Amino acid sequence: MIQLERALTHYIADKLNLEVDKEIFRGGLPVGTDSCSVMLLESRTTNELGCQRFMVKFYCSYPERDLIMSTVNSLVCNFPAYGIALAMGSSNLKLKSITKGMSGLGKDFADDGQLKSFGEIFLTVLV
């Protein structure tokens, strides 16, 4: 699951033209940063033969609400996507699909003495 989360972070970073570990992170946002994150929330049990289903959350936090709106909109436009090959070390993992669920903007919050907004998208990944 760590490799999948890492590969999804790189995939989304590529779609948004963001630098991994500087502008987008895996698993959470470092305190006090204006950035994005990709986080595996859960693995859902499925009775489909040869399928695994993962719930993924992409979110970002910036002081500029317009930047969040454009980032979320840019990513939403990439899904649904089918038959994606994710680079995982020296091999590729073939995904059946990445589909979008709920997306939205959150309320402003204080972070390290600065008022920020956040946006998020929930994705379903079928392997």
How is this structure best summarized?
By secondary structure, the chain is an alpha+beta fold. The chain has 2 helices and 7 strands, in the order H-E-E-E-H-E-E-E-E.
Described by the principal axes of the CA atoms, the overall outline is: globular
Tell me the number of structural domains. 1
Order of H and E elements: HEEEHEEEE
Which class in CATH terms?
Alpha Beta
Number of strands: 7
How big a fraction of the residues is strand? over 45%
What's the architecture in CATH terms? 2-Layer Sandwich
What is the arithmetic mean of pLDDT?
Answer: 89
End-to-end C-alpha gap = 12 Å
Unreliable spans are: none
**Given the helix and strand composition, which structural class is it?**
alpha+beta
Main sheet properties: 7 strands, mixed
Helical amount among residues, as a percent range?
10-25%
Number of helices: 2
Q: Determine the oligomeric state from the structure.
A: single chain
Computed over alpha carbons, the radius of gyration is 15 Å
CATH fold-type name: STM4215-like
